[in-house]
Amino acid sequence: MKAQPKYSYHVEPFSVEDRPRRFLEAFSAILEHSNYSSVLDFYIRISTKCSRCTASCQVYEASQDPRDIPCFRTELLLKVYRRYFTLAGQLKARLFDYFNLSDDYIDQMAEEFWRCTACRRCKLSCPMGIDHGMMAHLARWILSEIGMVPKAMVVSTREQLEGKTRNTSAIPAVAMKDSCEFLEEELEEMFPDQKIKFPMDVKGAEYVFFPAVSDFLMEADTLMGNAAMLHSIGASWTIGTQNFDGIDYGLFYSDRMWERIIKAQLAEIKRLDGKIMLIGECGHASRSAREGMQNFIPPDERVPVVNIMELAHAAFTQGKLKLKKGAIKERTTYHDPCNIARTGWIIEQPRVLLRHMCQDFVEMTPTGADNICCGGGGGTVSIDEIHEFRMFIGGKVKAEQIKKTGAHYVVTPCANCKKQIDEVIKAHKLETERTGLHDLMLQAIEFD
Ligand code: SF4
Ligand code: SF4
Q1: Does one domain contain both 200 and 239?
Q2: Which tens digit of pLDDT belongs to each residue from 316-355?
Q3: Do residue 306 and residue 158 come from a single domain?
Q4: Distance from Cα 70 to the centre of ligand 1, integer Å
């Protein structure tokens, strides 16, 4: 095997002593305050070890390491549950020399649950519907409660919840506004007869916009395409200067963090008296907002969550958004971000726009709900220490898929996937350019 993932844990302010006891206490508290136990009870009864999930995991396909077999990894946590949280397990432990949770076993879980990208492709092939991505999330949550979580996650989440900037890239609001003013000037050069703006702190706007905050640093064309599209359809929208980050790493490692972040985002929408949470080109930000709204916010306080590609698609089919047919000449393919495609939520909408804008649109195989993860999902893209693992194990199958299309552009509407696919293209020396959907729209948009 080419690479082993190794990363720095965040352990402070936790003690490294007596981890098995603390792991079990955290597990017990989570079970008490959630409904995970009903799912785990179901899983320990039905798991058939048929191995059908094995064939659908892109990590295992590349590594051929038994540790990457989905049901093998899930069994690590189910074994702890069976032993400590079921009557049968407790009786068995009294009668026989049965499994006891050890430091080494905890280390093994901390290593292996971060080798999964939580893409949930394997769930589609499991006859029992076992969700290994959810199991990775639960294991990571318990581990994070004893300080065992990659530092990259903690540093970003802490800045978002407690730092001065309140976002994962630590961009001060004044710098964000400054870069939007610069983009407005660029847009004026492109479209001199339009006055395309990035509205800030507009009270009562219909849409409050939350891109992945990294877009302000690295994705100027995506943001300009977003603003141009919203301008052309006459949308009432705004960016909130007190919270403008759609990222929610809680989705990857902790329901507790997930809840705190979605509540902070919602507070900004309420401060501005906004109506709809509009998420930019980001798969995980979209799913964390949509499911977070359902899971953690009382029904009478929720607002609808819309991904910007859904809005563009609706405007296009209603004739409000005009795009020049065949404006993009180069061969173009589309990467489905797992967090919006796996459940069938956003698959066709971007394709309707791409088939219209592009002269030569081609699909990867497989695609849509059955797509292959970019290899950086589940938060792993933020962990620089596992770069080689992400490139040559997690991202190997995606690199082969992109290469086979012979495409010049790969459209990747997600901040996580954009970073990972940029690195995959470089590591595998692919002759493909990664772009966003709204980046291409910028070349095709027509104003009345
Ligand atoms: S969720 Fe994805 S990466 Fe994780 S085990 Fe399943 S197929 Fe593999
Ligand atoms: S496909 Fe489902 S039932 Fe079969 S081994 Fe994998 S998790 Fe178990």
Answers
A1: yes
A2: 999 999 999 999 999 999 999 999 999 999 999 999 999 9
A3: yes
A4: 6
